[in-house]
Amino acid sequence: MPSARQRTYQTGVSYVRPRAADVRRALSFFSRRSEVQRAREERRELRDAATAYAFAERHVPGGCHQLPAEIVPFLERVRGLHPHRICEIGCANGATTLALSHSAPTVELVIGIDLFVKNRAILRALGRPQQRMAFVDGPSLSPQALTRVRQNLGGAKFDVLLIDGDHSFDGALGDFLAYRDMVRDGGLIAFHDIVPDAYPQEGGAADAPRLTMPPCPGVPWAGDVPRVWDTLSPFFEHETYIADRGQQGFGIGVLEYRRDRVDHVLRDALAVARP
Q: Among residues 67, 105, 168, 254, which is most buried (max CB within 10 A)?
């Protein structure tokens, strides 16, 4: 077992390495001044969901971890809501966060949450002028993260919440239960990766536990998000954006959140569904 000093060192390294990589990406981006200027001019011409997605995909290192046939209609739905406040749990490279920030001219606040939010300087540089972006590092269910999100909201409510973080059953469901009260009545709560993947059980055994991490980088992985979606969606008006019904992973499911639906019936269903 590592000593306290070793654990402290390892924790520091796990934070310093991604932060150093983030600084390198930012320096590389801002060193290309003409490209940065063109990108800032380009953002003035963003008029719809398709151009918002293309803009984010083109300018954020790593791009969106999304299928265009799913994310564009979702952004169109978001735009139709005329949102003011948006939150994404699980930002990855931040490209979807940027696309959401440009989804509608009414967006005033965007909050991104991840273990370490990447490309934040680039996101702020390419966001809408006068729009506020706040980034929260750490587990989304930690008391510190929840407190910081509430502080940034300042008593207001989100219009849109996109959950794309921990893909375990307890993780994805926990994000819904912890953040739902921060979403206004009639707002949208969306889940990414509602389509089952090719890895239903670890090792293929019928009684094997679910994978709690992707099997390898770049492999479409939904984890237990499809089961969370199947548990919640019957209780709300909802719609799905799925490029191909035969695909592995991906897919966006959108709930129209109503507080009166979160009653004893829903709680009973969650108790039954919980592994």
A: 254
Token pair of 207, please? 């009684």
Residue 189 domain flag:
yes
Query: What SS3 state is found at 239?
Result: strand
Question: Which letter does DSSP use for residue 163 in this model?
Answer: E
Q: Given CA atoms 74, 75, 80, 86 in this order, what sign does their dihedral have?
A: positive
Strands across the sheet containing 183-192: 132-137, 109-114, 85-89, 158-163, 183-192, 252-256, 237-241
Exposure b/e, 129-165, CB count within 10 A at least 16 = b:
eeeebbbbbebbbeeebbebbeebbeeebbbbbbbbb
pLDDT in tens, 175-202: 999 999 999 999 999 999 999 987 754 4
- Tokens standing for 100? 């959401």
Backbone φ and ψ of 4, nearest 5°? -60, -40
Burial-class residue 33 by CB neighbours within 10 Å (0-12, 13-18, 19+): exposed
Provide the residue range defining the domain that includes 105: 46-273
Q: Is residue 33 part of a domain?
A: no
